Amino acid sequence: MIDTAFPDLITANVEALRAQVGERYADASFAGYRIYHKRPEQAARQQAAVAAIRGYLVDLPDRFRDCGGLVVRGTVGTGKDYLTAAAALEAAARGYVVAWREGEELFGEVRRFEGATPTEGVAKRLIRADILCLSDPVPVSGTLEPRQAEWLKAVVHGRYKRMRPTWVTLNALDEAACEAMLTPPVWDRVRHAATVVTCQWDTFRGFARAHAPRIERPSAPARPRVRASDGGVRKVTPEELERARRKGFAFSPKSPPVAADQTEAEADAVRRAQIARLREALEKRKDAG
Q1: pLDDT digit string (tens) for 211-221?
Q2: Burial grade of 54 (CB within 10 A; 0-12, 13-18, 19 or more)
Q3: What DSSP character marks residue 220?
Q4: 7-210 — its CATH code?
């Protein structure tokens, strides 16, 4: 632990943790966590989770006496990593040396140190940290390989012996699922004297998509239309179209052409007359046939 009497060291400690958690969580804070649910029961669950983690931080010095860690579990997209990162940054600002590892990152280091004992290299540094945060320490397959399970147990057990809390986030809702993910020996040590916070509400990503601002696209400007000189409807030749465009007019292929300066009432009357003439022409064709 770093003495808070040395502010430069505290600042460096916080910045080192920010580099580990990445840009998404570098500025995580409890004030920045949004209680986004409209339904009272889900909003209450969010508020209770935040209060439980903040309460854990109040008693943080006592957690080192019984090695009481923190387990933040729940459904995907509920902000488990965000809340844990907010707690970790607050702990780092108090002088605690915090290490942060995501599952794939941790197991990548395991592959790098293939052949080494689990208490050497990176594992040794993780054991020495005041607080270790493991973000979803399970491979994509959902099952730890024997080598991965060996390393994880060695790190967690090493910290357990030294009375140093381990924080874990998991995409699981109950004890059985957590134990199946981490293996019984690891879960037993992580769970002992830990504060367990369950995040069970709808995903924030779905909420963000549903409430994303809509981009209003400007509508196309209305085009002026031209009525044929005899009042009838006929095909416009390319030459006539070009001459009309030079004069500032345009033809619409979807509706009968009207004069550009006509009112809507006048244009409607012209259309009705054109439709009547077309019907009359069709009746004459039927009679002639």
Answers
A1: 555 555 555 44
A2: middle
A3: P
A4: 3.40.50.300
